[in-house]
């Protein structure tokens, strides 16, 4: 007898259904197997079959056959699975039906609330001219000429300096930088730091104490009084170009400053629209979640969500040239501590998953295999140089993830049409 949280599927695949996967496997195998008279990847099926045997071809194709047929089966039967299936091959003979069993964990069922009384208002996107002014100022500053000065540093200068942070006389790990750029007046550093730099000249070294904010991102410095040892390497006066027609032409294909302002405003509107949509979707789901009764969430579901969130964090850090281990060290945090911190957010995400899948089932919302194939193609085109990631994209796990992601998007779009008012 199966546990309540598991399902067992028996799938039988006919030869004409899995033949296309064997043809694809043949092409893949012929790139690895030297066959006289044929270029790698171009040997016909029958030649490869003679060389390696049809059973070996079927074995090569097996992973893709299971990936596709399992995903199709759970979509067709509307089974809300959790994690990867445990596969047992029951029959596997070339030219005969392939039979396998898939044992998989399933998500608990919930009953969505009545949505009739729910209503949310869509926020209006407004862009003020002063917002465009600020972007234009930053853009002009990024194009500023840096004029080396011998005078003491003043407000609005660029200063390049070395610093070392110590606590109780002990130099701190990850507490030093070389030739670090500081734009005086922007107050991007901790409070009081820039005030100490104003008046210093190139070659000067200075020690001073300052307190880090309580919410500082590096835990080993947060809310602590630290000693800085700072050496100024160079002081630059910034010659910032005026944001006029000539400046606009140096930025891109713009006729005048008004064209550039229009472009910046459109970009800012698009950014705000994306953020507004994200907030609206979060509010929408929270409103419905608060009206829904949930059973105790399976630990496997919580663990999966935490794992996915860490994976998303790793990808975001990689885009910024960082890795998770370094990031955790900077925060004075362990991976176990991070997982604990992520659990409240993971619970909200897990409830969202259960809700969206329940609504998809109730409203008969689904995605086709063609839609999944199209998404796989889009991802393949975007990440064609990342061979490791592309191998994951072809897995049954990732295909199932895409199916659920696309279905969730359809459900959210359906909810917006039903609940959100202009």
From TrEMBL:
It is found in: Cytoplasm. It is an enzyme of class 5 (isomerase). SUPFAM superfamilies: FKBP-like (SSF54534), Triger factor/SurA peptide-binding domain-like (SSF109998), Trigger factor ribosome-binding domain (SSF102735). GO terms for molecular function: peptidyl-prolyl cis-trans isomerase activity; protein folding chaperone; ribosome binding. It comes from the Bacteria. Residues 257-417 form the Trigger factor C-terminal domain. The keyword Chaperone applies. Residues 6-139 form the Trigger factor ribosome-binding bacterial domain. InterPro entries: PPIase_dom_sf, PPIase_FKBP_dom, Trig_fac, Trigger_fac_C, Trigger_fac_C_sf, Trigger_fac_ribosome-bd_bac, Trigger_fac_ribosome-bd_sf, Trigger_fact/SurA_dom_sf. Its EC number is 5.2.1.8. Residues 151-232 form the PPIase FKBP-type domain. The keyword Mitochondrion does not apply. Pfam families: FKBP_C, Trigger_C, Trigger_N. GO terms for cellular component: cytoplasm. One of its GO terms (biological process) is 'de novo' cotranslational protein folding. It catalyses: [protein]-peptidylproline (omega=180) = [protein]-peptidylproline (omega=0). Keywords: Cell cycle, Cell division, Chaperone, Cytoplasm, Isomerase, Rotamase. Belongs to the FKBP-type PPIase family. Tig subfamily. Consists of 3 domains; the N-terminus binds the ribosome, the middle domain has PPIase activity, while the C-terminus has intrinsic chaperone activity on its own. This is Trigger factor. It comes from Candidatus Kuenenbacteria bacterium RIFCSPLOWO2_02_FULL_42_16.
